[in-house]
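Lab channel / #folding
Pinned by the channel admin:
"Please post every new chain as: sequence first, then the C-alpha cells as a reply. Keep commentary short and put observations after the output so the thread stays searchable."

First post following the new format, from NK:
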Amino acid sequence: MRLLIATLCFVFGISNADAKTLNDLYQAVVPAGQSQSVWQQQALAQVLIKVAVNPDVVEHPEIKAELKNAGNYIKTFAAVSSEQGPALKVGLDEQKIQYLLSVNQIAIWGSRRPTLVLWAVEQTADSRLFMQGANHPVLSQIQQLASAIGLPLDIPTASDTYTAPLSQDEVWAANWLLIEQASLPFNADQTLILLFDQPSAGQYRLTWQGYEADQFVSNELLADSQQELAKQFLTSLTAQLAGKFAVQLGSQQGESELELDIEGLTNFVDQVKVQQLLGAMLTVRQVTVVERQADLLKFKVKLAADRSAFINSLSLERRLQSLQAQLEPALPPEAVQSTDAADQLFYEMAAEMIDQTTTVPTDLLSDAVPASLRYRYVPN
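Reply from TO:
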C-alpha cells in the first residue's frame, strides 16, 4: 500500500503526507462568566483529555481528585470571543500536566499527531449513499469527538458543496486504488473507509477498514444507533493508534540513550531544523551532535521513553526516511532453506536449554537490536 501511495504521489505531483502539530495542545477555551474554580477545572479537563487522547481520563480517581487543584496548572488566561460567545483562552503548564499523567501511569501523546481522512458510506434497503453535509449528525459527532481529543482528521463529504471524485459504490467495494487517489489532496497519514448498514431492526453496524503498516485491517462494530457507533469508532481507533503513538514517560528499561545517524544534511539550516525537531519530541530528553561527516550527522539521543516509542515518533516525520532495513545483513541461503528435521532438532535443543535455565550471552542479545539508528533527511 505504501508503494501504491508513493506511486500516486509521483503521478499526480502531490507531496507525501505529514503529521500535524497541535500548537494549542496545552491551551483550552472555556465559557466566560463562570466562577474561577469552575473554568479552571474545565480548562484542565480539556487539556488532559487532549494530551491523553482519552475522554475518560478525567474519571481516573487520582486525576478526578486533582481537578480541584486546577489553579496550580494555570499559567495564562485572556478574554476572547468564540462561536458560543465570550470566553477565556487558558494556557496550562506542560511539565506539570505531563508529570501528573506519568505518575499515575497514564500514557500521553505528543503534539505531533497522525492525520487521517475518512470516507463514510451508508447502505439502506433502498440505496447506498455517501454520508454528506456539514450538519450530518454522524459526521458532526465524529468531528466533535476527534477535536476534543486532538485527533486531526478530514471527512471530505462533511461539506454541503464537496463532490467526491469517486462513487459510493467504489468505496463500498473497497477499491483502494481509487480511494487512495481521491485521498491524496488531503495529505493524510492514513485513509479509512466507514461502511454503515443495518443488519436487523434496531441494530446498526459499522465496518471500518484501512491499511496499517501495509497490513489490511478490518473492524466491525454493532450498536443501537449510528451515533453510538461513531463514539465506539473513535474509541476503537484511538486505542489502536495509542499502541503506536502513546508514550509512557520514564518507561525505558536499561537503555537510556542511543546513537542516531542522519544523512542528507547538506547545509547548516537543515542541520538546525533536524536537531530542533528531535529536541521537541516527547520521547527525547536531550539531543546533541557528536560528529559530522560530510552530509552525515551523528546524534546522541537521551530518551525519555523506550526505544520503540522513539522510533514510532520518528515515523511521524516524513522528512526522515529509515535506512535501517538496508543496514541489516541478509541471512545466508543455508539459514533460510531449513528442513523439517532441522526445525525439529532446533526445537528440541531450545527445549533442553529452557529446562537447564541456560542464560543467553548478552553479546548475542545485543546483535538483535542495532546499536544505532540510521535515517536519511529529505528536504521539503
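NK: The first strand starts at residue 20 and ends at 21.
TO: also worth noting, Residues 226-245 form the longest helix (20 residues).
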